Amino acid sequence: MVRVAILDDYADAALTLADWTPVSQRADIQVFNRHLSDSEAIAALQPFDVICTLRERARISAEILDQLPNLKAIVVSDGHVRTIDNEAATARKILVCEGKAPDDMPAAPSATAEFAWGLMLATLRHIPAEAQRLRGGEWQHSLGQELAGRTLGIVGLGRIGTRMAHYAHAFDMKVLAWSQSLTDQAARKAGATRVEKEALFRNSDIVSVHYVLSARSRGLVGQPDIAAMKPTAYLINTSRGPLVDEAALLDALREKRIAGAGLDVFDQEPLPKDHPFCTLENVTMTPHLGFVTETSMRRFYAGAALAVAAYLRGEPANILNPAVLAHE
């Protein structure tokens, strides 16, 4: 029987959030609910014909593909995922297919923006630390900061950044925005004022990053940007860890040259428990939860189930490396 692996299902929800019956009738399904290192992935995945990945949780490199002799198809939840070596998969005649949910299935367009706002509030009001102290029998220790009258700087005024600007006005905040191609008109339409990058970091009380990670944007928030921030300012990142120069941010936080940071994403995920961020009291951290809601997960896993079922029927769809078929 064909063997199908569902990787990195941390909440152990894949099989309950989607209908996998058409797959289970033709294949044996195994769920991996913790992250596998490269060596663990090679050892565990050798028997599998199909692998399902979620966003960028799994890295499938050429070195890993070389040691998975039975692998014939990889199903990804997003056609823009950069952690799968499509070129190497194509060379090994392994299909890479995008799992797409039905068009009429509810989406979660505000999930990340809502979470980013929650992380901002949690960071400025020290909610996680105070909640933990309360469980230990202690009472108030910290002084929080309010949002009204403050300035929010948004790096990347796309779909999520625009929602953040909308939320900011409900909290009586001023909004500045910058991105490499942002125009004054587009910023005004979103309720923001376009400024140059240096001015945004210099004048914002909170900087929130909402940018797509690419070769062009890696390290977009660098040491000069962080150095320009006020000592009372906070950095919030719910997009991708490598957008921000991690070493520069760590130095600024250690030396308290900025007030703090709220981080949902990191250069290395899952974050190692001995990472320096874990030792800093002025960092609020969450494990890449921005997109993780029941609604969004239903869509991801429904799309994966449909893609695997189509492959098993001999009718693979949404193929991201069609050159594989050309060689058959």
Structural summary, described in words:
With 328 residues, the chain is of the alpha/beta class. The protein folds into 2 domains: 2-106 and 294-326, Rossmann fold, CATH 3.40.50.720; 111-285, 3-Layer(aba) Sandwich (Rossmann fold), CATH 3.40.50. Helices cover 34% and strands 15% of the residues. It contains 14 helices and 12 strands. A 7-stranded parallel beta sheet has the order 8-7-6-9-10-11-12, with helices on both faces. β10, α12 (246-254) and β11 form a beta-alpha-beta unit. α6 (111-124) crosses α8. The longest helix has 19 residues, at 294-312. The chain is globular. The two termini are 22 Å apart. The model has no long low-confidence stretch (mean pLDDT 96).
Topology as a string of helices (H) and strands (E) = EHHEHEHEHEHHEHEHEHEHEHEEHH
| Strands ordered across the widest β-sheet | 8-7-6-9-10-11-12
Largest sheet: 7 strands, parallel
Query: Rounded to an integer, what's the Rg over CA atoms?
Result: 22 Å
Which architecture name of the largest domain does CATH use?
A: 3-Layer(aba) Sandwich
Query: What average pLDDT do the residues reach?
Result: 96
Tally of alpha and pi helices: 14
How far is the first residue's CA from the last residue's CA? 22 Å
Query: What are the segments in which pLDDT stays under 50 over at least 5 consecutive residues?
Result: none
How many discrete domains?
2
Share in helix: 25-40%
State the CATH superfamily name of the largest domain. Answer: NAD(P)-binding Rossmann-like Domain
**Secondary structure tally: strands:** 12
> What fraction of the residues are assigned to beta strands by DSSP?
5-15%
CATH topology of the largest domain: Rossmann fold
Characterize the overall form.
Answer: globular
Q: State the name of the first-level CATH class of the largest domain.
A: Alpha Beta
Helical/strand content category: alpha/beta
